[in-house]
Amino acid sequence: MKSNKAIEATWYAIVLWIVGFVWGMTVYMIPALKNMPSISHISKLPAVGVVLLPLCLVMLWYLARRYLASTNRRSVEGLKLGFVLALITIVLDTLVYVVLLGSVDYFAFLSIWIVYAMFVIVPWLLRRNLGQAQ
């Protein structure tokens, strides 16, 4: 991955993380949304996942298409982008939610792992589809 592509992927990861963080904090500050019962092993705050899963999917599709459009190496770059997005998001989630906010059970819910998997799978599928058009 070239330096400018690595920087672009890093910025995309930060943008995706900030959107999730802002929505999560918004839900946390609205009692009606925060007090929704959790779904055991699936989601601690269902109001976060219901909005973020489709929103992340749309944003990820757009950002990955934009990222892959500027490269001729789509067969490799899609997977690299996905791993960069997932890795940076996991690091930021660990630093903010686990270390700073003390949410020891943050990684115990399936919904967060679905988002991480989307970060890898969507660019990979997209690069395959764009790569077939070449």
Summarize, please.
By secondary structure, this protein is mainly α.
Features:
about 130 residues, 5 helices, mainly alpha
Explained architecture:
With 134 residues, the protein is mainly α. It has one domain. It contains five helices and no strands. α3 (46-69) packs antiparallel against α4 (74-100). The longest helix has 27 residues, at 3-29. The two termini are 20 Å apart.
Strand count, sense and barrel status of the largest sheet are: none
3D shape: elongated
E-strand count: 0
Q: What is the tally of helical segments?
A: 5
CA distance, first residue to last residue: 20 Å
Structural class: mainly alpha
Element order: H for helix, E for strand? HHHHH
Instruction: Provide the residue-averaged pLDDT.
Output: 89
The whole-angstrom Rg is 16 Å
Helix content range: over 70%
Oligomer: single chain
Strand content: under 5%
Query: Total domains, how many?
Result: 1
Low-confidence stretches: none
Describe the SSE topology.
Layout: H1 3-29, H2 31-34, H3 46-69, H4 74-100, H5 110-132
